[in-house]
Amino acid sequence: MNSVPNKQLVYVVEDSLSSGALYCSYLEQAGYSTQHFTNGHSALLGVKEQMPDVVLQDVCLPDISGLEVLSFINRQENPAPVVIITANSSIDVAVDAMRLGGFDFIEKPFSKDRLLTSIASAVDQHQADIATVPTAVQGTPSTSKIITGVSEYFVGDSLAMSTVFRLLDSAAKSKASVFVTGESGTGKEVCAFSLHKASARHDGPFIAINCAAIPADLFESEIFGHEKGAFSGAVSQRKGAAEMAAGGTLFLDELCEMDLNLQAKLLRFLQTGTFSRVGGQTVLHSDIRIVCATNRDPAREVGEGRFREDLYYRLNVIPVQLPPLRERGADIMLLAEHFLAEKTKANDKHFRGFTPEVKSMIMQHDWPGNIRELQNVIENVVVINDGELVSVEMMPSLAPVLSKAPAKPAAVVLSNSVPSFGSVSSPTGAGMQGIRPLWIVEKEAIEYAIEQCGDNIPLAAACLGVSASTIYRKKKSWDSGGEG
Ligand SMILES: Nc1ncnc2c1ncn2[C@@H]1O[C@H](COP(=O)(O)OP(=O)(O)OP(=O)(O)O)[C@@H](O)[C@H]1O
Fold it and tell me: Does the beta carbon of 114 lie inside 6 Å of ligand 1?
């Protein structure tokens, strides 16, 4: 080992002696200490003996799978961030690794700069993680800002949202791309911003680009910038969003609107971490985290040829689906009260709450425009009226109330088509009408989550708020005729 006190220690887990030696030399030239392990078991022993600052690990190892090494590291105290090295053909394994808590992945062949950028941001993440460990555990007081969870930035308390918060909180610890889907106005941008603020990049820039709002011919320059004279109107050099977001997060809203040519350029940037400004030759690097969003169904866009499949898999590492407001139960009033207080203060009014009739009106409405619609309605009421309580007369006529969908279970919120738990027929034929054995209800919810997560059991477990081993255990019991 070439460990020197105060140098950041990187474990390089790579079975090829020559590649491992090359990575170590790049890292040591940049001031890191390194230790090279040529198989998974020796890396596990190394981690047990001393947790490094970062692990750089090939996903294919001769003895055990790279995913096992990753899971082992993540079960230790203060685990080091793991940067996965992958061959192009094993990209789906790399995506699995990110879902299991990997920090970043880089595809072979990669440049020295790409490697160093990823390792530097992993070191930052590790230091931020250590700063969040309670002082009593760490032994010394920390002056670093404590990073709190995403719920700090989100109004919402429902079970539906707690599932989302749990996913986002674990996503915040890595650099993995997050793909947020949900109807218009459900808070996708708020979600991206919360994720940024809860991550180690919280002091870096958050740059949001609405892909639907940029004319196609200006798109490339918006994202990658341009040199002076690159096209008529380019009177000076300009940085693009990818450059401006360096060290922070780039939020690409309405991503499915992006032109196919530019999708190819975005993919190249994601693979290499490099790009050039329009009209420029210089190769630039930018260390950014990508969060993207759409209110379309991205898998369908892929199926219909409007969205590149390879880009979709690259970005859809952590999929987050925001539930529509009508499925968020008590959150509707929580948000209404939040907006009432906010708008009352901003407009110097005196509202303290809603009459019971207005509360019931708010709860009965379907809110097709989601949170944005609710926010607009409350703002409208506050600006035009004043008083202590918002009464029915003050409310604008809400669109005709659609018959409310039957209450849906909040345990799984990944789709609008959650199976009804209020089914009248009991598969076992036992019990009173409408009541079914709990284990069957649980089995359905778990099977539904697994299906929605594309058979990814760890992800389904995260969505359900249980450990993956609980799901494996229950599946085994069901398969052998038990009740889980
Ligand atoms: N949980 C929340 N707490 C408080 N305000 C919220 C929350 N979620 C959304 N909002 C507010 O609702 C409005 C819509 O949110 P946002 O723009 O993030 O939605 P969106 O899903 O990105 O919409 P679109 O699909 O139209 O781009 C914003 O004004 C935002 O501030």
Answer: no
